[in-house]
């Protein structure tokens, strides 16, 4: 019986000698194999039975007048490549047998050792079943991956459209709230002014969230790779963050900033998110100190951005790069929960990986790699 169906094994036997056929079938019965078989002895009927009979396994004589096991195997490879194929011969030499196995023949049986044929059939059927199962699993995983990619693309498209369409109404809300605050602040009591302040602050946070969502969804949409001087990029980042740098007195040192092939806009986002986080999550009463280093390795650049901030607990190592994950309470966190997800997506888009080392109260070092030759 076959391992998968528990039905008699369908054997296609390619043999021309009646005595050899009788000996083979006797061994199959003696070995307790439940089987049905079809006999052929030339190429035309062999090809026909491959299609019509759909065998579970093929037993082929090595030498047949006008047709042989090698020719049969080559035909079999075209029409049913996964069907096990065993050569049965009294004349095959060990060297020829090894060459056939290398070519893809499942096994061989010498006619003088015909008692081993059932064992070899069972083993071949078991291996074929396992191979088919692995092949089906691989195909299923491939389908899942394709479906996941499609879903992610749809989600990114939705995030892009939704974020883009929300910008204008949100801008109007923010503008009218500010106008309300400016025009009526003196006429309203303290509680009313606090409500307006909360609304203005909420609108500003929502704008940051929408901007980050747009940035996140754009990463896979467009990418322009060209030589980028990271010293120029980092200086632009520091200019963008000048208000928070001046407010906190942050000290930022750059040990090395190479020129590499990358998307300049995405490099700006990457360094701004990581440096901005290092400033934001500083220890209270401590001047932020941030060091940026880079090393050239065989196939990529390795970067490290080290700070002396509040640190990150190891339990967050899996969550930290997931979109909308905030590792600190909202009261102490002005972030959107998207910055590190953007950073990871940019790094992966550039053929690299990102990770961190940290301990609570002892600062954090973010490491990431960028391929030396992005195309």
Automatic annotation (TrEMBL):
What Enzyme Commission number(s) appear in the record? Answer: 2.7.13.3
Q: Which domain of life is it from?
A: Bacteria
UniProt-listed PROSITE patterns? HIS_KIN (PS50109), RESPONSE_REGULATORY (PS50110)
- 4-aspartylphosphate occurs at 61
Q: What region holds the Response regulatory domain?
A: 10-126
Keywords from the UniProt entry: Coiled coil, Kinase, Phosphoprotein, Transferase
Q: Where is the Histidine kinase domain?
A: 161-374
Annotated signal sequence range: none
* Coiled-coil features, chain-numbered ranges: 121-161
> InterPro entries recorded for this chain?
CheY-like_superfamily, HATPase_C_sf, HATPase_dom, His_kinase_dom, HisK_dim/P_dom, Sensor_kinase/Photoreceptor, Sig_transdc_His_kin-like_C, Sig_transdc_resp-reg_receiver
| Gene Ontology MF annotations | phosphorelay sensor kinase activity
Under Pfam families, the record lists: HATPase_c, HisKA, Response_reg
Its recorded reaction(s) are:
ATP + protein L-histidine = ADP + protein N-phospho-L-histidine
Family annotation (SMART domains): HATPase_c (SM00387), HisKA (SM00388), REC (SM00448)
Q: What is this protein called?
A: histidine kinase
């Amino acid at each position: 019986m076959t391992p998968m169906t528990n039905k008699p094994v369908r054997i296609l036997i390619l043999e021309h000698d009646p005595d050899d056929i009788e000996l083979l079938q006797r061994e199959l019965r003696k070995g307790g194999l439940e089987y049905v078989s079809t006999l052929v002895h030339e190429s035309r009927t062999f090809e026909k039975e491959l299609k019509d009979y759909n065998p579970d396994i093929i037993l082929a004589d090595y030498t047949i007048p006008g047709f042989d096991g090698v020719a049969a195997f080559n035909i079999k490879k075209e029409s049913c490549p996964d069907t096990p194929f065993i050569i049965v011969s009294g004349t095959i030499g060990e060297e020829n047998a090894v060459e056939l196995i290398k070519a893809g023949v499942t096994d061989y049986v010498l006619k003088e050792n015909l008692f081993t044929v059932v064992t070899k059939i069972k083993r071949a059927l078991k291996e074929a079943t396992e191979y088919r199962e692995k092949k089906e699993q691989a195909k299923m995983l491939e389908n899942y991956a394709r479906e996941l990619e499609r879903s992610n693309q749809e989600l990114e498209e939705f995030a892009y459209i939704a974020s883009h369409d929300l910008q204008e109404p949100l801008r109007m809300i923010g503008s009218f709230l500010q106008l309300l605050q400016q025009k009526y602040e003196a006429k309203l009591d303290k509680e009313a002014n606090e409500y307006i302040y909360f609304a203005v602050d909420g609108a500003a946070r929502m704008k940051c969230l929408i901007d980050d969502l747009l940035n996140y969804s754009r990463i896979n949409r467009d990418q322009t790779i060209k030589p980028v001087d990271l010293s120029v990029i980092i200086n632009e980042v520091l200019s963008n963050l000048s208000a928070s740098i001046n407010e906190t007195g942050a000290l930022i040192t750059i040990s090395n900033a190479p020129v590499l092939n990358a998307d300049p806009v995405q490099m700006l986002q990457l360094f701004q998110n990581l440096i901005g986080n290092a400033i934001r999550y500083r220890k209270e009463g401590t001047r932020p100190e941030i060091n940026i280093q880079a090393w050239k390795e065989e196939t990529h650049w390795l970067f490290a951005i080290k700070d002396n901030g509040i640190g990150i607990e190891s339990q967050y190592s899996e969550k930290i790069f997931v979109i909308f994950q905030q590792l600190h309470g909202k009261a102490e966190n002005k972030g959107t929960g998207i910055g590190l997800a953007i950073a990871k997506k940019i790094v992966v888009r550039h053929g690299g990986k990102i990770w961190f080392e940290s301990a609570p109260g002892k600062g954090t070092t973010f490491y990431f790699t960028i391929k030396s030759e992005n195309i």
